[in-house]
Amino acid sequence: MAKDEIKQEDLLNIDHSPSLFKKGWMNTPVDIRPSMHCYACEPARLKVVDFPNPRVWSVMDEDWKLPKDWKETVMDAFKDRLDRFRTFKLFMDICVRCGACADKCQFFIGSADPKNMPVLRAELIRSVYRRNFTAAGKLFGKLAGARDLDYGVLKEWWYYLYQCSECRRCSVFCPYGIDMADITIIGREMTNLLGLNIDWIAAPVAFCYKTGNHLGIQPHAYKSMLEFFQDEIEEVTGVRVEPSFNRKGAEVLFITPSGDVFADPGTWTCMGYMILFHQLGIDITWSTYASEGGNFGLFTSHDMMKRLNGKMYMEAKRLGVKWILGGECGHMWRVVNQYMGTMNLDLAEGSNLENPVSPMTGTKFENANSTKMVHITEFTADLIKHGKLKLDPSRNDHRKVTFHDSCNPARAMGLLEEPRYVIKNVCNHFYEMPPSTIREQTFCCGGGSGLNAGEDVELRMRGGLPRANAVKYVHEKYGVNMLANVCAIDRAVFPGLMEYWVPEVDVTGVHELVANAMVLDGEKEKTVDLRNEPLPGMEDAEDV
Amino acid sequence: MNIIISLTVSFLAVFGLVVIAFVGVWGAHLEWLFGVVIPYLAVITFFIGIVYRVVQWAKCPVPFRIPSTCAQQKSLPWIKYGYAEKLDNPVNTFWVVCRMILEVLCFRSLFRNTRLEFGSGQEIKYKSAKWLWLGAIAFHYTFLIVLLRHLRFFTEPMPFFVKIIENVDGFFQMFLPTVYQSGFILGAAVTYLLLRRILDGKMRYISLPADYFPLFMILGLVTTGVLMRYVLKADIVSIKELTLGLVSFKPVVPEGISVIFYIHLFLVSVFFAYFPFSKLTHMAGVFLSPTRNLSNNTRIVRHINPWNNPVKFHTYQAYEDEFREKMKDAGLPVDKE
Amino acid sequence: MSLKNLLLQKRSRIVKKWRDVILQTYHEQSQGFLKKKDSFGNPVGCTISEGIESLYDALLEDSEDSGSDKISEALDSIMKVRAIQDFSPSRAVGFVFGLKKVIREELGNEILQNGSHEEWAAFDARIDGLGLLGFDIYANCRQKISDIRVNEVRTRSYRLLQMAGLSYDLSEHEGDPNGEKKEDGASNGQHNMEAREH
User: Which domains does chain B carry?
Assistant: First the structure.
């Protein structure tokens, strides 16, 4: 920002040239702004996973220290992907630029940067495709919307590929189902061949590969963190829960994003899982090896996603469990629903995995017969439906709740009713945000696809603006003070977003609400909830 | 691409085509070239081109099943999974076909556009934002009707449905010759789609000459067609002789067909030949789009990726080797003591 | 006619032009979109349009007190949006002064003819005050963003420090019962870790 030279005239009308004579986007070079991108990845991260071209580089530098043959690398990779992904080839060919997606992207809505229109973000890549792979582009160049891949274009690619949160909102409105997320995934795959990644993605990938979770938490620390929660839970409820780890012969393996184990407010959701499992007495184990549900490999390359995801089946097989239960996480469930079986089911051969059945209700989760993995809100909704949980929703009466559909469970799975059913049974006050901002039309939190870093907070504030705006509406209209969701990235990103736009609203996972409403066997008289905040009617209780 | 350059280039291209046909027929008397050779070449290019494109797409594997799910998934038996859900989040082929029909015939996704506005106070009002949908529907369907009506030139006797279409299309028989609404609606729809690109700042920015060119082309087709039928009154009998000759592979070029017909025919030919190499292939591509034509059943049935890349995993053994002592200290079970 | 009445009379024109002054600070290609009335699909444009209207009305209110509250509120809603967008501080706030230009264009002649110079001078000063207030709010918003950044880092590491027994809990020394509870937990955790080490 300080770079801007302020002229007297700048203060008001910025641009006096008549728009008709404006240069088109192809002749408008990328202007990389601070706080709109994440930091470049450090070489150590890439070495761990044998990624090419690890080096120290910086986004704001002129020279990104690209390998000499970078153009050939990208072009070979481009061709290779055109041959391997029908989505990519088709999406390069059939866009008619009708503009239906243009104003659907939260990053465009919040920033008004026209290159954030999904169609244009895709055109950045399509233009290079036309130049190199179509006759018209080779013959007519810019007239055919084609341009060469040069240094500036590569930077432009990178800049905007890391301003897309792979939320798929545009694909819902596209008459041909063109999915910008898929183009972004493949685009990022290509930039990764040049060592161009962001540290916020590369570090979790490297950590997850080595230690099993994004934060690089070693096994003993993971265990002691949950033990720490045991104490907190005991203080609040009087009940001591006993989670088990890496236990062979358990019936179910539980995998949840590690973010919930280490940062508020996810921690309370994590405690919610522990309370639920304890009360049910279910034969379930946590794993320190497969201690990550999330998969930042999805934001890196298809192969990296596969490498990280493999741990789920390998661990399930090693422990001999019958099925896997998955915690609340957004992109984790995109991977589980749309990629996991295809990529890694081979690894489960010879395991004890079988079609998932709820040990409490006998319900067969037939929609998970192949992957053997059940979403925790599917599991809990079934419990509630069968009356297996003793619930006192009035314990959540101090919460006026709204539900944010996370992009991936909504648009890459269709998990819409399960969390709502659970919330409505554990809370008395539930209010929906306006229809064009929820369910399949939900807005992103602004931090999906590995953009939830600290340095790009302005990007996140812009991307999250439409969501915050809808929350503000229900806050003003119904007094909503709690934003529930089923995603660990949401829980990491929303507190900041809310603090800025609607400071009165707090953030929670669904299972925190569940645990708070649960009446446990042998519980003491509860006066506070998991956050140590007084329960309704207990504001003056001595024990608080 | 700057808007003025884009518009100029695409307009001049279409105008150039008109001039070529005009000079070719009126000046050089190349009726055979413009009436027979070029149309044949164009149709051959069209079919070979489209087949080539579709084969290219179809040859490309679908490694992952990534439909955009636009409604509740099929999950527990008591969670509502009705017709609307089956359509927008299909779990089997039948409903995928239904979803595709709705998408291809009704432009379902474009219909999703809505706009919410505050009415009085905090109440929200829905506003329609269906202009693009309406324009697209009007354009594609009238184009189809016009195309079908043209079958009268290629068949003898005319199939019954062509007659029906003509009757419906010319419902308002106030003029002679019968005025077909479709042609005028088509012209209006194309004009709308064109103006939209020019007047809306966003659209102007994303539009390429490749977007204006087909629109000008279709405007040229409509204009020459309308002129021929209502103003210059081309000789229909001779034209039909020519067109029937074309379809029966016994080409003839009767005398006395006016130049405007050759211009029209030349534009049509170029349009057909251009089709497979342009964005117009969306007509075929929409059927192959993996985010729409696949069911969301990957948790129920494994989807096979033909090139499922072998990758290197970090095994539990390697993990335990690295952390064994710490794990033992923490009381975590280990495989190897 | 007094200046105030003139300003009321031409309200819709002035507000519209003033809004356009703001929108012109955005990419030309997106200005059309920002004008779209869609409260949830176009929150930036709608916040600005609504904010400008209330700001204008508040400026015209007689009572300084009620006016100033409304002014801060309306200005706050606009500045919050602009503070996170790609503007230098002067550009983010500069639109306020654009109102002077708009009014001069719309009412310049009337002001001259009516001789309402004094009224205009007073109003002009109010706009200056509005601009200064704008800078305050802008700075607050920027401060908030950096707070958020710091808070996030703290939240992300707090639990780990707590678990490792590295974080120092002040509340235990203040005799806060809440803190004691937490302290118990922390020492338990620490105890566990020590136990493991032996």
Answer: 3-306 (1.20.950.20), 312-337 (no CATH)
Q: Which two tokens stand for residue A42?
A: 């450090």
* C-alpha to C-alpha distance for C156 and C169, rounded to whole angstroms: 17
Q: What is the DSSP string of B181-195?
A: HHHHHHHHHHHHHHH
Task: Write down the domain spans for chain A.
Answer: 25-197, 203-517
Please tell me which of the candidates A94, A103, A342 has its beta carbon nearest to residue B302.
A342
Closest CA to B313 of A250, A315, A179, C95: A315
Considering only residues 6 to 35 of chain A, which have any Cβ-Cβ distance to chain C shorter than 8 Å? 6, 10-15, 19, 22, 33
Write the pLDDT tens digit of every residue in A199-257.
999 999 999 999 988 988 899 999 988 999 999 999 999 999 999 999 999 999 999 99
Tell me the C-alpha distance between B240 and B227, whole Å.
17
Structural contact between residues A391 and A400, judged by C-beta atoms closer than 8 angstroms: no
Length of chain A as a residue count: 544
**Does pLDDT of B161 surpass 50?**
yes
Distance CA A401, CA A382 (A): 21
Under DSSP, is residue A430 helix (H, G, I), strand (E, B) or coil? strand
How many angstroms away from the CA of A500 is the closest CA of chain C?
Answer: 7
Measured over the CA atoms of residue A164, residue A169, residue A171 and residue A174, the dihedral's sign is negative
Q: How far is CA A110 from CA A146, B285, C93, in A?
A: 29, 32, 18
Interface touch C148/A221, C-beta < 8 Å: no
Render the burial of B230-239: b for 16+ CB within 10 Å, e for the rest. Answer: eeeebeeebb
Q: Which two tokens stand for residue A400?
A: 């006026």
Total residue length of chain C: 198
Q: For residue B103, count CB atoms less than 10 angstroms from its CB and return exposed for 0-12, middle for 13-18, buried for 19 or more.
A: buried
Three-class SS of residue A352?
Answer: coil
SS (H, E, C) A442-500: CCCCCCCCCCCCCCCHHHHHHHHHHHHHHHHHHHHHHCCCEEEECCHHHHHHHHHHHHH
- The full DSSP string for B172-241 is -TTSSSPPPHHHHHHHHHHHHHHHHHHHSHHHHHH--HHHHHHHHHHHHHHHHHHIIIIIS---HHHHHH
Residue of A nearest to C24 (CA): A13
Averaged confidence pLDDT in chain A: 91
| Contact with chain A for residue B336, Cβ under 8 A | no
A:190-209 residues touching chain C, CB 8 A cutoff: none
Most confidently predicted of A456-460, B59-63, C39-43:
B59-63
What does the block give as tokens for A22?
A: 């404006």
Residue to mutate among C19, C101, C148, with most A CBs inside 10 A, is C148
> For B305, left (φ over 0), alpha (ψ -120 to 50), or beta?
beta
Chain A nearest-CA distance from B174, in A, is 36
Q: How far apart are CA A508 and CA A268, in angstroms?
A: 8
Asked which of A174-183, C11-20, C106-115 is least confident by mean pLDDT, the reply is C106-115
ipTM of the prediction? 0.91
B37: which DSSP letter? I
Please state, in angstroms and rounded to a whole number, the distance separating the CA atoms of residues C90 and A211: 48
Choose among A228, A500, A544: nearest Cβ to C189: A228
Those chains having 3 or more beta-carbon pairs within 8 angstroms of chain A are: B, C
Cα–Cα distance, A159 to A35 (Å, whole number): 12
Name the nearest CA neighbour of A509 among A337, A241, A237, A257: A257
Q: Contact, B225 vs B264, CB < 8 A?
A: yes
| Residue with tokens 């007659």, as numbered in its chain | B163
Q: How far is A473 from chain C (nearest CA, A)?
A: 9
Per the structure block, which two tokens stand in for A119? 């169609």
Mean pLDDT in residue range A520-526: 91
Residue contact A440–B70, C-beta within 8 A: yes
